[in-house]
Amino acid sequence: MNSVNLEIIALVVEFCGWVLVCCTLPIDYWKWSSLDGNIITTAVLWSNLWKSCFTDSAGVTECRDLSSILGQERVQCGKNAEVENHLELGKKLLAAGQLADALSHFHAAVDEDPKNYMAYYRRATVYLAMGKSKSALPDLSSVVELKPDFTSARLQRGNLLLKQGKLDEAEEDFKKVLKSSPSAKEETDAKTQLIKCDEMQRLLVQTHREFNNEDYKTAAAQLDTLLETCVWDVALRELRAECYIQLGELGKAISDLKAATKLKNDNTAAFYKISTIYYKLGDHEMSLNEIRECLKLDPDHKQCFSHYKQVKKLNKQIMSAEELIGEEKYTDAISKYESVMKTEPNVPYYTMQAKERVCHCLSKNQQALEAIETCTEVLKSDPHNVNVLKDRAEAYLLDEQYHEAVRDYETAQEHSESDPQVKEGLERAQRLLKQSQKRDYYKILGVKRNAQKKEIIKAYRKQAQQWHPDNFQDEEEKKKAEQKFIDIASAKEVLTDPEMRRKFDEGQDPLDPENQQGGDNGGHHFHRGWNSWQGFNPFGSGSFNFKFQHN
Prior knowledge:
Elements: H1 3-16, H2 39-50, E1 51-55, E2 61-65, H3 66-95, H4 99-112, H5 117-129, H6 133-146, H7 151-163, H8 167-178, H9 184-212, H10 216-229, H11 234-247, H12 250-263, H13 268-281, H14 284-297, H15 302-326, H16 330-343, H17 348-364, H18 368-381, H19 386-398, H20 402-415, H21 420-436, H22 441-445, H23 453-467, H24 475-495, H25 498-505
Antiparallel strand pairs: 1-2
Helix pairs in contact: 1-2, 3-4, 3-5, 4-5, 5-6, 6-7, 7-8, 7-9, 8-9, 9-10, 10-11, 11-12, 12-13, 13-14, 13-15, 14-15, 15-16, 16-17, 17-18, 17-19, 18-19, 19-20, 19-21, 20-21, 23-24
């Protein structure tokens, strides 16, 4: 307030005997009282003073409107009261744990009075309580700028700077606290943190030396210690991530890099690196997600865009191949996975994954020999791959290599005891092995296990023609032919009936009485005598007719 304003107020008090009751009330409500009780005199004096000219100490005369001057003082007084009201309400809400509401009041206080250091300090306190240290730091800096001797704010800022790894700036704050007549506790805290700063600076130098010497294990251990104090230091987290990458601990590297993306808002480099790690691990979907985050920050980022195109293409091919497998279009799926291997020949994971799925498709497509070859190639690199062991076992069953199928399922069970497919597959392979040591209807007709009905009937006719007993004159040969013909007819009966064939494929002989459970699924057929087949024409309306006379 200048000398003119002070002079006006002094005159008001001297001539009118005024007592100011409340500066926040409008001018119409101000109460004036004359010392001598002469209200008229007071009114005259007031009207003369309301617009007056004053001469300051330098002899300069200034005419001012007293009402405007006093009005300005009243507005300022009102603002101060409003700020104090926001601060008081904010404190109460903060104490009650209502952080968002408290923050809104402190925002209002700062807006009303940008030079009120306490408003910034209170707001910084709420930010810290909310875990928003990034927002708290500028407010604490404003406090220190407005009130340099506010040691509590400077100490808190130093602590935040230390956590961010800004060791020199933190050290400067702690030293200034010690020079500002701090409390005993503040002095102790500042000294402790100064020692910590010194330790961190020395350890940081050692860490960089170990990293440059490619001693990544030691460097990572030292970074663990550094990050216990400098928890928000982006550079330290990225350096430790690089150590983990060199040590092959990619999961830990991803964890550190993800933290770095949260600590630094526009960290495109970290998103790019996360994406490339996921890509090398074979997680193409996560790789695609992370590279998209990079492009959200910078659509023109060359590295990210180039990598994005590669991952997107590969991801599309893999997804398409899996859809085809789901639709049982195995030949098309094989073609897609061959494209995958061409798109990415330099990352071993994708080559092996593609071959694993090709092995699966070949097995499902009943291409036994091709499946065995491809699955075996995968198992050379990954001998305990349960999925590939199952697929090769199924291919062995198709090729009637029952011992090999049992062996693969047993190996798979060693590494996946709880897999129901392995348990069921092993039991089936063991039944088929046992069955193969008895009657094998496929072998009787000379067809593969995946033979179509048309092939089975054709083979049956050929065998029936060859082994019809009427073709044999010698008694012993005739008896042998009779049994052979019965087996041929039984094989045709089982393999052309879908339900009976299904049971046989599962390792049960539907014509074996031991496998019947009270049903009439043809158990009596197994003991048919030759007489049951006499006069039987295996060729239907064909041109071949046999008449057998049993002596």
